[in-house]
Structure formats: C-alpha cells, structure tokens
C-alpha cells in the first residue's frame, strides 16, 4: 500500500502516529529503508550539518530512492558550498540545489536593505522566507514524505520531536529519523564511517546556516546558540519547521 493511499484510508494524523511507532524500533538504516519503500516521492532536505551528513551517507551507501536537496540561499559559508560537491563525489549522488528567486531578493533588499535582518525580527523572518521557505516549497513540490535531520537535543524548542508527524501546511508526512540521536552518537557514526563534515564544526560551529547569521558558540552554550545570536528569543527558528511560517508561504 502506498503512503498516499494509506493516508487517504486511515487519515493523515493516524498514519503519522502509526509510522512513528514503527520507526521507533528500527536503526537509522532501517528507518530510511522503511520510509523509502512507502511509495510516493521522498525528499530529504540537507543543510550539510553533521547530522544531515549522517542521513546523506546512509542514503548514498544503501542507494535508497530518496531525493536529496539543499537550499542554496546565496549566503552560505564557502566551506558549506565545498562540502556539497565533496559529498556528491563520495557517495555518487546528486544534491539538488534550490535557490531564491532574484526578484524576491531584490524586493527584500528594496524594503529592508540587503542585511536588514539585523534590524528587526520581522526583517529576519522575511529574509528566511525569501531565501529558505520559498525555495523549500519548490523542493517539496509533489513530495509525499519529507525527511529532516531534526534532533531532540538540538534545542529546547525541538525536545519533543517525533520520528514521524503530519505536516498539515504542506500536506505530507514529515520524518525525523535522528530524533533520538544525541551529538555524541552522531560524531561516533561520522568517525566510524568516514563521513565528510563541515570543517566549521571543529571551529565551534555545531549548527551552521547562512554566514551573516551564524557565529561560533561559547563553552556551555546550547548547540543552536550561534544562530541569529542578536535576537533574544531562545526558541528562535528560521521558519522551516514552524507551522505558521509554512502556512504564510503557502498563502503567498
């Protein structure tokens, strides 16, 4: 039974809950293999962070029928861009790049200034909307399942991350196969399997986004403390995993 037919018969929330229970008892390779076999287009979106590299390694090693995509925002670190090509070469896969539209960037700059995201939360969310959320919408067109690298240990805001959930705004199943992995398990997998990672991790960047919006963290700070560090909201996000932001993009 395909995932699309199953959702139609059981209902999306019930299907997500059932899948969540099935994924809980599997290892990472088993989780990805199960999801890849459910039917419909499966898309994994990677930021090239260390956890995402673990998922990409498993997809490439096991030749799973999962599309790998990244949001090439136009403001990424040079190290991140180089890692895209290194990863493609090592695993013989194609990472599909989704870029923002020039017209959207021009409109943003006209309203806020190119680096206006430093001036207000509104401007920062608008920048993420243009450079991340709208390209993500294109990456997920026609997808039945969206795989992410979300982990419960990344931040307090992600502490309850399930293995599977229904994304009502995007009308698809969202799967987080590393939800229960901690950073030490991630690092151990990378070391044991020779997974290429961003050299910025070794320089104090556990979470890496756009260059102007990411700094190294200080000892004792949470993993994502270096993202949009000038804002005071401890639960700050770019909007990729926030329902209200997704709904806003869908409305546009």
UniProtKB/TrEMBL annotation:
Q: In which pathway does it act?
A: Sulfur metabolism; hydrogen sulfide biosynthesis; sulfite from sulfate
Subcellular location(s) of the protein: Cytoplasm
Q: Please verify whether the record's keywords include Cytoplasm.
A: yes
Does Nucleotide-binding count among this protein's keywords? no
For this protein's source organism, the top of the classification is: Bacteria, Pseudomonadati, Pseudomonadota, Alphaproteobacteria, Hyphomicrobiales
Phosphoadenosine phosphosulphate reductase domain spans which residues? 42-216
Name of the protein in its database record: Adenosine 5'-phosphosulfate reductase
Protein family membership: Belongs to the PAPS reductase family. CysH subfamily.
Record-listed [4Fe-4S] cluster binding positions: 127-128, 210, 213
Catalytic machinery residues: 238 (nucleophile)
Task: Tell me where the transmembrane regions lie.
Answer: none
Q: Show the PANTHER family listed in the entry.
A: 5'-ADENYLYLSULFATE REDUCTASE 1, CHLOROPLASTIC (PTHR46482:SF9), 5'-ADENYLYLSULFATE REDUCTASE 3, CHLOROPLASTIC (PTHR46482)
The note describing how and how many cofactors are bound reads:
Binds 1 [4Fe-4S] cluster per subunit.
**Per the record, what are the reactions this protein catalyses?**
[thioredoxin]-disulfide + sulfite + AMP + 2 H(+) = adenosine 5'-phosphosulfate + [thioredoxin]-dithiol
User: What broad class of enzyme is this?
Assistant: oxidoreductase
Record organism = Rhizobium hidalgonense
Give UniProt keywords alphabetically: Cytoplasm, Iron, Iron-sulfur, Metal-binding, Oxidoreductase
State which Enzyme Commission number(s) the record gives: 1.8.4.10
Cofactor requirements of the protein: [4Fe-4S] cluster
**What broad class describes the main subcellular location of this protein?**
cytoplasm
According to its UniProt entry, what is the function of this protein? Catalyzes the formation of sulfite from adenosine 5'-phosphosulfate (APS) using thioredoxin as an electron donor.
């Amino acid at each position: 039974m395909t995932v699309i037919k199953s959702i139609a018969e059981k209902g999306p929330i019930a299907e997500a809950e059932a899948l969540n229970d099935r994924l809980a008892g599997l290892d990472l390779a088993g989780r990805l293999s199960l999801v890849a076999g459910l039917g419909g287009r499966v898309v994994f979106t990677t930021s090239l962070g260390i956890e995402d590299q673990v998922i990409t390694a498993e997809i490439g090693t096991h030749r799973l029928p999962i599309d790998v995509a990244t949001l090439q925002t136009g403001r990424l670190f040079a190290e991140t861009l180089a890692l895209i090509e290194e990863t493609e070469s090592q695993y013989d896969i194609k990472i599909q790049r989704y870029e923002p539209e020039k017209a959207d960037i021009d409109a943003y700059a006209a309203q806020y200034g190119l680096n206006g995201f430093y001036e207000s939360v509104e401007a920062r969310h608008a920048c993420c909307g243009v450079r991340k959320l709208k390209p993500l919408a294109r990456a997920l067109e026609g997808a039945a399942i969206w795989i992410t690298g979300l982990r419960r240990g990344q931040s307090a805001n992600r502490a309850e991350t399930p293995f599977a959930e229904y994304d009502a705004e995007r009308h698809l199943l969202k799967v987080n196969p590393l939800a229960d992995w901690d950073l030490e398990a991630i690092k151990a997998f990378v070391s044991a399997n020779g997974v290429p990672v961003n050299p910025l991790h070794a320089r104090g960047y556990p979470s890496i986004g756009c260059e102007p919006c990411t700094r190294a963290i200080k000892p004792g700070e949470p993993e994502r403390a270096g993202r949009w560090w000038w804002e005071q909201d401890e639960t700050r996000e770019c909007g990729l995993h926030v329902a209200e932001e997704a709904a806003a993009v869908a409305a546009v």
